[in-house]
Amino acid sequence: MFNLASRYMRKFTFACLLLAGFLGSSALAGPASKGSKNLRLLSEWMSGQFNSKDHHKRDSLIAPLEMRQEVIWENLVTDGIWMYAEWKDSRTQAVVGQKFYKLSDLDDKQMELTIYTISNIKDYEGELSKEKPFANLRPDELTMVEECAVIFTRKTEQKYQGNTSGTDCKSGSRRASYILQDFQVFENKVVWLENGFDSDNKVIWGPLNGGYQFKRELNRKK
Question: What's the predicted TM-score (pTM) here?
């Protein structure tokens, strides 16, 4: 009798361990663990409220902008991390730009940021102030901006850098033949440069002395 009870107890214990392992692996595979460690840290550093007010004080040609970027759709099963970005003019509080981003791993060193939009994007101004932003919108309703992917690498322990390449990115070109974007992402600062070039590869719009320097305004979400 004792041996029989002992055998059943061992089987029960083994079943419990299997269940615990399954639950543990399920938790690790949840939304919070999408992508590589570098990808998750990049999205964390990009998230939050930023502004370029200090940069505007040093250079009046730089507009005083507020930028908010946050991870969205965390509970959806997707192959990347989705973010929404919105820019406002600090002087008027008018929204001057909106974009959706998808961050995904390319390999063990490179990460890709693809840009998405939607025809009625103006309807989503201020959406991040809602308790459940974009609850009535899904990724498959967005349109990817072709040929404008930004490829990121981790340059140092303190910096990620990404940029578009070539001359194929023409979305929102404003009479330019093509545009180039460059991102430098730090824990408490994002430097963002976007320039339009003519057919002679000369800059026709955008900052000439480096990108907008956005300093973190609020504490980063944990």
Answer: 0.81
